[in-house]
Amino acid sequence: MTHHDLLSPERLRGVLLDVDGTLADSNHAHARAWAAALRDEGFEKSPEAIFPLIGMGGDKLVPELTGLDAESERGQRMTEGWVRHFQELIPDLRPTPGARALVEGLRARGLRVVLATSGEAEVVDALLRQIGLDDLELERVSSTDVENSKPDPDLVQAGLRTLGLPAEATLMVGDTPYDAEAARKAGVPCVLLRCGGHPGVEEHDPVYDHPQALLEALDQAFPVE
Predict the structure, then answer these.
(1) Strand order in 14-17's β-sheet?
(2) Do 17 and 6 touch, CB atoms closer than 8 A?
């Protein structure tokens, strides 16, 4: 499928949007928060070592980084610690370039928009307020709504149910290979953005720099009437 076909009005009816790294410049903050949460439990991992795993949910990160079950007592403390440490960093976070314009541009075309994020609901609430998107009152599915987080397809499948659309009429927009893998497993076409800084995005096609660049491509393929 060409880039133009991927974004064409003949195909596209709804969009699933990741949040961290896609709409919010928050991936490095998540890596720092996880490093602090692990340190609280006696595990020394640098933010740089953790960063390539950001995009997975805590149910995947905890065992990957520590060998512990995320549902164990210590695993749960780490997840709670990550939430606490990340919330302290939220006031310094900013939206990615064109984040709001992309959401508004999608809606202007009559497309359904749902957020599909591995983040905890309380964290996503605070993050959307910080980056100025909370007033858009976007529907969403998060890790609290499904059994398994990305790269499992659960979130994308839940997003499809919320959209009420088939996979072939939908687009996933994310910033990590975990978004692309989850979308692929659910049969949903996907584009990735470089603005999250993940080193693996260049292996995917198509890739855009940030939401503004995706919106410009959408303007070409799917003009607002």
Answers:
(1) 139-142, 112-117, 14-17, 170-174, 190-193, 207-208
(2) no
Give residue 40's pLDDT: 97
Report which secondary-structure segment, H or E, holds 147.
Answer: none
Q: Please provide the DSSP assignment of 175-219 as one string.
A: SSHHHHHHHHHHT--EEEEGGG--TTGGGSSSEESSHHHHHHHHH
Q: Which helix (H) or strand (E) holds 171?
A: strand 170-174
Q: Tell me how crowded residue 91 is: count the other CB atoms within 10 A of its CB.
A: 8
Q: Which two tokens stand for residue 90?
A: 């939220």
Separation in Å, CA 171 to CA 30, 34, 55, 70: 25, 29, 18, 30
Q: What is the pLDDT of residues 37-52, one digit of tens each?
A: 999 999 999 999 999 9
DSSP string covering 10-57, please? TT--EEEE--BTTTB--HHHHHHHHHHHHHHTT----HHHHGGGBTB-
Which two tokens mark 86? 């990340």
DSSP assigned state of 112? E
Q: Does the model's pTM come out above 0.85? A: yes
Residue pair 97/211 in contact by the 8 Å Cβ criterion = yes
